[in-house]
Design a protein that fits this description.
The structure is a single chain. The chain is α/β, with parallel strands linked by helices. Helix content is about 45%, strand content about 15%. Strands 3-2-1-4-5 form a five-stranded mixed β-sheet, with helices on both faces. Strand 1 and strand 2 form a beta hairpin.
Length: about 200
């Protein structure tokens, strides 16, 4: 059951970005939208162009009542698995807000442990504007981090694929091996590491 559009409960939307890549941290964001300032064009970040995401991210940061972005490291992903690391990033994002929302709406089926009411919503990033906003902030923040990491590890093409398992990324892995920001617990990376031992 989705929250009523006219609900007076102050709700934060939460989503993550970067569960699928072979490299880099996973990011999450929490956004509490301002009901008196509607942001047009909010949608699942995957359905938006980079230019649209960047423009909306600026508007969200400017007009939301509150927002926060957090991440979990590659080391944490490898230690506790990607699902738990995603939930950890979500928890950190919510806890980084300047206040605790009365309710948190989370995209998907899983939720982190939080000190407020929590509701999970499958496809929430397409259905709930606050979750859409969170998906946009998480995605743009992670993309910016992957562009920064590209400067440190230029051989892998992180500026193009952002760590996702593309053909070009697999070719770079085969040629150069895994680097420090590759997720060693992920099967394709593990296979490359074992091959090069």
């Amino acid at each position: 059951m989705l929250p009523a559009a006219d609900s007076k409960i102050l709700a934060g939307g939460v989503d993550e970005a970067g569960r699928g890549p072979l490299a880099g941290p996973v990011y999450a964001a929490c956004v509490v939208l301002n009901p008196s300032h509607v942001i047009l064009g909010l949608a699942d970040s995957k359905q938006l162009s980079e230019k649209q995401r960047d423009s909306l991210a600026l508007e969200i940061k400017r007009h939301a009542l509150a927002w926060a972005i957090a991440s979990a490291t590659v080391e944490e992903i490898d230690r506790i698995n990607i699902l738990q690391a995603s939930l950890l990033a979500m928890q950190r994002a919510v806890q980084s807000l300047p206040f605790t929302p009365e309710r948190v709406l989370i995209d998907g089926k899983h939720s982190p442990r939080l000190d407020c009411e929590v509701q999970t919503i499958v496809n929430g990033d397409r259905l709930i504007p606050a979750i859409s906003a969170a998906s946009i902030l998480a995605k743009t923040a992670r993309d910016a981090e992957m562009l920064r990491l590209h400067q440190i590890y230029p051989h892998y093409g992180f500026d193009r694929h952002k760590g996702y398992p593309t053909k070009a990324h697999f070719q770079a892995l085969q040629q150069h091996g895994a680097c420090e920001i590759h997720r060693q617990s992920f099967a394709p990376v593990k296979a490359v590491i074992h091959r090069m031992l």
